[in-house]
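User: Please work through this fold.
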Amino acid sequence: MFKCTHDLLNHLKKSNNLEKLVVSKSSWEEMFPYEELFGNENHAVILTQLRELELFDLPFLTHFWNEDKQPSPIFHILENLRVFLCGKLTNLVPSSISFQNLTNLEIWKCH
């Protein structure tokens, strides 16, 4: 299957103030390819304002990013996380991630 599309990656790199991201009906295996999104030049600014993340109907999604990589800044201020119909998702995030501001977590029909 596929990783996150090049077009979306470019858009995310330019969207420093993005507060909500909804992704649905994709064949991606990895939501946030670490090397492409969080390289040295982007690590401090990509998706640091993200408060809501919704993932729907991603049947091939297995992970958000490679667990062997450093934690990303994505989840530092995340307040709402909704994950539905992601049948192959086996690990939401690596154990090194802390959801300091998470107030709502909904997971439905995932592995």
Q: What stands out?
A: The chain has a mean pLDDT of 76. The two ends are 18 Å apart (CA to CA). The helical segments are 6-14, 34-37. Strands lie at 20-24, 52-56, 80-84, 104-108.
